[in-house]
């Protein structure tokens, strides 16, 4: 049988390794353990998300006689005061109950953790899988390679190397699922085109007016923001940017908004709320992300590039203040001919957030700089 084929038809079943990642993501989202493998390695991993005393006890019993470690990202290790260059394995002791483990994963505190070591290849893959499932970026893990451990047939196996290439495969799996005309409150006509990937996640292209595809098309890459887009949160500028982008596209005679499920710069909604709690304790938006163990921006624009190509749009004018989006879309094979600024109002609730974006991530917010100069 072909290595990449899992059944009678590769068109139906696809790549065996990628199927394993898809199923592993489903298991992690359901807070169930998976077996993550690499050459010479086999790691039984359980997401820390939703951990309680009962789940901890049952996982320890499943791994017995092997004691599980806690695997955290390099970012989380640095936040805990450890000089790490890779994800690390933290040995757990009897006093590490569920609450103590969650504190090691989420709280903005230093901790003395003797005996830590670099995480294995399979452990790093397990943590990346947790990130991709929008769970907390940490797992409990036991090395069962070569041990007297019989893997229950219900436990899904995931190849660590396949996890690293899943994003590219996800972009290649896109299909157009449905589309319809949608009149907007402004009176403008639009067409919503819904894309779906192999995991069943939906991304939407909103075609505003009638963009001229023979010229660079005005495009906005917009990461979904429930709090700002829907409820008008004043903690960010997301909703204001979306509405301004829509107005600009109408004024320009047409363009495209890609509405992408990348809540919280790719962290997911639950983790975004966790970062809000850390911000309330004094951290800025970037340090809050890295304190939880994420990169300051976890977004990937490969899917955005694939969506634009499927729409026959390969040259764009990007509506953004964020230079990283230009780099990301260019890397995804789209020609960015120029950038169009989106200047929205700043309020007392998002002032610190906006300053952090300008100072730490290079967002082009000239109006903020002018405003600060006038105040000094």
Describe the structure.
- The protein folds into two domains: 10-164, DHBP synthase (Alpha-Beta Complex); 168-262 and 299-375, Rossmann fold (3-Layer(aba) Sandwich).
- Helix 8 packs parallel to helix 14 and helix 12 (269-280) packs across helix 13 (285-291).
- The strands form two sheets. Strands 5-4-3-6-2-1-7 form a seven-stranded mixed beta sheet. It has a seven-stranded mixed beta sheet with strand order 8-9-10-12-11-13-14, sandwiched between helices.
- The longest helix is centred in the middle third of the chain and has 15 residues, at 238-252.
- The chain has helices at residues 10-13, 16-29, 53-63, 74-79, 98-106, 121-132, 160-164, 166-172, 226-230, 238-252, 263-266, 269-280, 285-291, 302-310, 323-331, 351-361, 366-375, and strands at residues 34-38, 41-47, 69-72, 88-91, 117-118, 138-143, 156-159, 175-183, 189-196, 202-209, 217-223, 254-260, 315-319, 335-340.
- 40% of the residues are buried.
- A hairpin with a 2-residue loop joins strand 1 and strand 2.
- It has 17 helices and 14 strands.
- It is of the alpha/beta class.
- It is 40% helix and 22% strand.
- The model has no long low-confidence stretch (mean pLDDT 90).
User: How is the CATH topology of the largest domain named?
Assistant: Rossmann fold
Largest sheet: 7 strands, mixed
Give the class from helix and strand content and strand pairing.
alpha/beta
**CATH H-level superfamily of the largest domain:** GTP cyclohydrolase II
Topology, number of strands: 14
Give the helix level as a range of percent.
25-40%
Q: Could you tell me how far the N terminus lies from the C terminus, measured between alpha carbons in angstroms?
A: 71 Å
- Which quaternary structure do these chains form? single chain
Integer tally of domains: 2
How many separate helices? 17
Gross morphology: globular
């Amino acid at each position: 049988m072909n290595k990449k084929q899992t059944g009678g038809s590769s068109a139906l079943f696809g790549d065996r390794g990628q199927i394993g990642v898809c199923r592993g993501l489903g298991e992690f989202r359901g807070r169930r353990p998976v077996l993550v493998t690499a050459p010479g390695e086999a790691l039984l991993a359980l997401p820390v998300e939703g951990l309680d005393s009962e789940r901890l006890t049952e996982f320890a019993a499943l791994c017995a006689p092997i004691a599980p470690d806690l695997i955290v990202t390099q970012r989380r290790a640095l936040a805990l005061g450890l000089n790490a260059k890779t994800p690390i394995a933290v040995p757990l002791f009897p006093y590490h109950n569920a609450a103590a483990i969650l504190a090691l994963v989420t709280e903005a505190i230093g901790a003395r953790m003797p005996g830590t070591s670099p995480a294995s290849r399979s452990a790093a893959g397990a943590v990346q899988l947790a990130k991709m499932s929008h769970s907390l970026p940490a797992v409990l893990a036991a090395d069962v390679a070569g041990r007297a451990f019989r893997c229950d047939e219900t436990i899904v196996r995931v190849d660590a190397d396949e996890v690293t290439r899943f994003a590219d495969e996800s972009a290649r799996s896109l299909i157009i699922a449905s589309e319809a005309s949608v009149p907007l409150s402004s009176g403008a006509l639009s067409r919503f085109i819904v894309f779906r990937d192999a995991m069943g996640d939906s991304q939407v292209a909103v075609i505003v007016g009638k963009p001229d595809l023979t010229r660079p098309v005005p495009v906005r890459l917009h990461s979904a923001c429930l709090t700002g887009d829907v409820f008008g949160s004043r903690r960010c500028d997301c909703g204001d940017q979306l509405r301004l982008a829509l107005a600009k596209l109408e004024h320009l005679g047409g363009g495209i908004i890609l509405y992408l499920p990348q809540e919280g710069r790719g962290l997911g909604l639950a983790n975004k709320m966790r970062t809000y709690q850390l911000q309330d304790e004094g951290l800025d938006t970037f340090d809050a992300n890295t304190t939880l163990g994420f990169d300051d921006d976890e977004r990937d624009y490969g899917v955005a590039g694939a969506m634009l190509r499927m729409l026959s749009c390969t040259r764009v004018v990007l509506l953004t203040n964020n230079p990283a989006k230009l780099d990301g879309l260019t890397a995804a094979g789209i020609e960015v001919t120029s950038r169009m600024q989106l200047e929205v109002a700043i309020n007392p609730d998002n002032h610190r957030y906006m300053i952090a974006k300008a100072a730490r991530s290079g967002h082009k917010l000239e109006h903020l700089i002018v405003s600060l100069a006038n105040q000094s």
